[in-house]
Amino acid sequence: MKTGTIHLVGAGPGDPDLLTLRAARLIERARLIVHDGLVDPAILALARPDAKLVSVAKSRARHTLPQDQINALLVREAQSGHDVVRLKGGDPFIFGRGGEEMEAALAAGVPCQVVPGISAANGAAAASGIALTHREDASIVSFVAGQCKGLAEQNWAGLAGQGRTLVIYMGVKTAPGIAEKLMADGLAPDMPLAVVENACRTNMRVLRGPLAGLPDLVEHHAVKSPALIIIGTVTARADTVLSQMLEEKAS
Q1: What value, to the nearest 5°, has the Cα angle with vertex 9 and ends 6 and 13?
Q2: Is 58 a catalytic residue?
Q3: What protein family does this chain belong to (predicted)?
Q4: pLDDT of residue 241
């Protein structure tokens, strides 16, 4: 029996219009799609009527399947002769564990191809009018996982501040610790930031405030995942840009 191929496909930040052409074609043709919980239902609706959709959604408190079992599922299906679309929110290789799944596939002798997607950071920034780099404000961008183990022990000095933009994934639950950590490592309490919830979707929200107010901002507005925290002076520059974008969209 011919071994199938595992396609690690980036679904982008939510809007189906932001899929790559290759991603859209693979989704439309696939007979088996193993998808994350953050993949928008409108993207899953592109699948053929007889496609088998398997959710392996993860949350901070609950995993439908542990990662090693997801790896085993992908390999088992491919070894059974099935082509598999592993559909992941954003880009497979940016906090998507795509690297782990690719390694598992190759170790088992299963062909694996990667289809990049628009990352959550790029999507959230573009949708909210925030230029992650700007000639006047930032020439360096850093991506950080906000729920990583040992947060307090890490050195975040220099990740944000003059000439830099910091994008934090998965930071809603740990917002108090993130603010405390960044200020302890030297970032000014009044550094502007934006929290972008449900980027590139119809219910997107953009919330702004200073670094010191991040915990209250998240709690007061009951921010839920998926959400990104963007820290840097580029977020303040975007106020006028976003208002113009929203006015144009409304008209």
Answers
A1: 160
A2: yes
A3: Belongs to the precorrin methyltransferase family.
A4: 60
* Same domain flag for 63 and 24: yes
Asked if 149 is an active-site residue, the reply is no
| Of 78, 98, 118, the domain-final residue | 118
Q: Return the SS3 of 242.
A: helix
11 and 111 co-located in one domain: yes
- Per-residue pLDDT at 98 exceeds 90: yes
Number of domains, the chain: 2
Which of 61, 83, 118 is at the close of a domain?
Answer: 118
Domain of residue 31: give its range: 6-118
Tell me the pLDDT of the chain averaged across its residues.
Answer: 91
The one catalytic residue in 58, 173, 185, 239 is: 58
Q: How confident is the model at residue 151 (pLDDT cuts 50, 70, 90)?
A: low
Report strand pairing: 6-10 vs 84-88: parallel
Q: How far is CA 225 from CA 5, 74, 144, 222, 248, in A?
A: 31, 26, 16, 10, 27
| SS3 call for 218 | helix
Of 15, 36, 40, 83, the catalytic one is: 36
Gap between the Cα atoms of 208 and 100, Å rounded: 35
Contact 242, 206 (CB under 8 A): yes
Residue 170 falls in which region: left (phi positive, over 0), alpha (psi -120 to 50) or beta: left
Encoded tokens for 216: 């209250």
Please tell me the distance from the alpha carbon of residue 138 to that of residue 1, in angstroms, as a whole number. Answer: 53
Answer whether residue 152 shows pLDDT above 90.
Answer: no
Q: Are 98 and 172 within one domain?
A: no
One domain, residues 184 and 65 = no
